């Protein structure tokens, strides 16, 4: 039976700082397969929390529940004063405008140019925005990721790393307070992966965003995390800084760092 | 005494179960369309874009196939008509056949092949690459944006394509008549219009809406419920064509019964 234990003082920090995301007693299963079992997590403003777990352990299910792409079986997910599973679509859309989501597959719209990809969330969330404002924001977001020259390209014309950066620019364009990253370095070569991680760190420092990163890339975990949460057997098995967990003797924790 | 082939019947039960389940899912998907299409926010710009993509871009293919259809049908019919000594009635016979039945069904089948597969593949690809999820996160109802617009565009555009296809097909027929005869353009069209009545045109026109709706719904359903990666996308495109083609014939069968009951045949 896995035991939940905390290995660092971040929980003390959570008590003193503003909690922007609070997950309590979250359960999610697909038929007989129990994916999340009494999962609990608090995210403090400005934190970069990495959820580490094996493939198929339910990491992606967790962030899809947070953004309400999946409905949990039970439990609460509190964000911006609302319990996500209980709210209506119009309130959910307002919350989603404050939460960025970087998809594992980038999820760029194939039939749209880079400009249209970036304009899409702006047009949908901020209906009254003018074309001049849209152009300025698209330009700013692309410059942020160093790809202003690709504005009229189609996603298929770009490399994997460039597509990831464009997806990040699309996530940034609404100036989100929380960014959810689903395996941001999967499928990238080590150099490009490092560039993406550095970009994520830069974004957090510049915009003081809070990030929840799903990953099993240890390089990403080490570089990007201010706290690591280990998702084992559907629940939060351990939590602490990278170094604390790396030096832990628990065999289930140790296997990730060997 | 005759014994029922229980084993044979039992072997068909799983397939029947899958068929009924699929039919139920498509019915539920259609119900969702009817509950969503009139609710704001209206995706007018996307609807117009889809009308352009689905309608205008199908014109060359529909025009070409309709032209060949009219031409071939006329050439094939001529010998039999001559045997019975009614070759002069060729424009009337071809006109009725094309307007009542062959035009709508053939254009709908071409439409299912082109648009049904394209919708199935496009939405299937969007589903497996998480683009539909990304749309939802961007404050967009993907069902309204992707499904409602495509189904409406297919429903509105197919009757227009059928009308244009009928016209092009009859033009092909006129050329076919003139390969071995000499009939003026005016005489040909006069004979066609004299032979057709309101009850020939209206049922054919109305059933075209149902054909278009079926192609749109089935294509969107298959794409929207695609899974198993790129293999699933191919399967979605393929089954969108197969199922919508079968639906076209079923609707046609139903339409002929309804027009018969209403005395329009």
Protein described:
The complex is a heterodimer of chains A (258) and B (265). Chain A has a domain at 1-98 and 178-186 and 213-258: 3-Layer(aba) Sandwich (Rossmann fold). Chain A is globular. In chain A, helix 5 (131-144) crosses helix 6 (160-172). In chain A, 38% of the residues lie in helices and 26% in strands. Chain A is of the alpha/beta class. Chain A has helices at residues 10-16, 59-66, 89-96, 114-125, 131-144, 160-172, 190-207, 218-224, 242-246, 251-257, and strands at 5-6, 19-30, 33-44, 48-52, 74-79, 82-83, 99-102, 178-182, 210-215, 227-232, 235-240. Chain B has 265 residues and is mainly α. Chain B has one domain. In chain B, helix 2 (44-54) packs parallel to helix 6. The longest helix of chain B is centred in the middle third of the chain and has 39 residues, at 90-128. At the A-B interface, helix 3 and helix 4 of A face helix 4 and helix 5 of B.
Total E-strand runs of chain B: 0
**Intertermini distance of chain B:** 44 Å
Strand order of the largest sheet of chain A: 1-11-10-4-9-8-7
Question: In one word, what is the shape of chain A?
Answer: globular
Structural class of chain A: alpha/beta
Poorly predicted segments of chain B: none
In percent, how much strand structure appears in the residues of chain A?
25-35%
- Structural class determined from secondary elements of chain B: mainly alpha
Can you summarize the main beta sheet of chain B?
Answer: none
- Listing every helix as H and every strand as E from the N terminus to the C terminus, the arrangement of chain B reads HHHHHHHHH
Q: What is the total tally of β strands of chain A? A: 11
Low-pLDDT residue spans of chain A:
1-16
Tell me what portion of residues of chain B adopts beta-strand conformation.
Answer: under 5%
Name of the CATH homologous superfamily of the domain at 1-98 and 178-186 and 213-258 in chain A: P-loop containing nucleotide triphosphate hydrolases
Could you name the CATH class of the domain at 1-98 and 178-186 and 213-258 in chain A? Alpha Beta
Backbone CA Rg of chain B: 22 Å
Q: Into which percent range does the helicity of residues of chain B fall?
A: over 70%
Question: Which H/E pattern describes the elements of chain A?
Answer: EHEEEHEEHEHHHEHEHEEHH
């Amino acid at each position: 039976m896995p035991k939940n234990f905390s290995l660092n003082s971040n929980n003390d920090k959570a008590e003193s700082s503003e909690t922007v995301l609070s997950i309590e007693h979250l359960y999610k299963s697909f038929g007989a397969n129990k994916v999340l079992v009494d999962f609990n997590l608090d995210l403090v403003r400005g934190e970069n929390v990495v959820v580490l777990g094996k493939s198929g352990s339910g990491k992606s299910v967790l962030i899809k529940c947070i953004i309400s792409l999946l409905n949990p079986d039970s439990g609460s997910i509190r964000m911006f004063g609302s319990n996500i599973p209980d709210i209506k679509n119009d309130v959910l859309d307002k919350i989603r405008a404050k939460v960025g989501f970087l998809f594992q597959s980038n999820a760029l719209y194939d039939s749209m140019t880079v400009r249209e990809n970036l304009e899409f969330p702006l047009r949908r969330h901020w209906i009254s925005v003018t074309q001049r404002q849209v152009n300025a924001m698209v330009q700013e977001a692309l410059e942020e990721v160093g790809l202003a020259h690709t504005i009229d390209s189609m996603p298929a014309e770009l490399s994997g790393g460039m597509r990831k950066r464009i997806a990040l620019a699309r996530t940034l364009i609404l100036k989100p307070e929380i960014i959810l990253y689903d395996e941001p370095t999967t499928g990238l070569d080590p150099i490009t992966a490092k560039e993406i991680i550095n970009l994520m760190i830069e974004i957090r420092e510049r915009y003081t965003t809070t990030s929840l990163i799903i990953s099993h890339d240890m390089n990403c975990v080490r570089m990007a995390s201010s706290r690591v949460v280990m998702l084992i057997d559907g629940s939060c098995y351990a939590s602490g800084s990278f170094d604390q967990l790396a030096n832990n003797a628990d065999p289930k924790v140790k296997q990730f760092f060997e | 005494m005759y014994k029922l082939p229980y084993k044979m019947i039992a072997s068909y039960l799983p397939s029947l179960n899958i068929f009924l389940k699929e039919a139920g899912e498509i019915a539920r998907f259609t119900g969702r369309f009817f509950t969503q299409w009139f609710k704001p926010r209206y995706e007018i710009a996307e609807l117009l874009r889809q009308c352009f993509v689905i309608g205008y871009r199908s014109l060359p293919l529909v025009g070409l196939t309709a032209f060949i259809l009219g031409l071939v049908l006329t050439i094939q019919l001529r010998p039999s008509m001559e045997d019975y000594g009614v070759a002069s009635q060729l424009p009337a016979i071809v006109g009725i056949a094309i307007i009542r039945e062959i035009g709508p069904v053939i254009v709908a089948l071409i439409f299912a092949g082109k648009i049904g597969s394209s919708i199935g593949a496009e939405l299937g690809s969007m589903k497996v690459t998480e683009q539909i999820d990304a749309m939802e996160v961007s404050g967009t109802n993907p069902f309204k944006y992707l499904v409602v617009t495509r189904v409406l565009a297919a429903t509105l555009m197919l009757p227009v394509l059928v009308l244009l296809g009928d016209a092009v097909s009859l033009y092909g027929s006129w050329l076919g008549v003139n390969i071995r005869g000499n009939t003026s353009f005016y005489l040909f069209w006069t004979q066609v219009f004299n032979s057709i009545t309101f009850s020939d045109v209206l049922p054919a026109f109305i059933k075209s809406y149902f054909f278009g709706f079926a192609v749109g719904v089935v294509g969107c359903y298959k794409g929207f419920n695609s899974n198993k990666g790129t293999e699933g996308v191919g399967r979605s495109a393929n089954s969108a064509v197969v199922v919508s083609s079968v639906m076209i014939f079923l609707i046609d069968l139903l339409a002929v019964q309804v027009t018969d009951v209403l005395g329009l045949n």
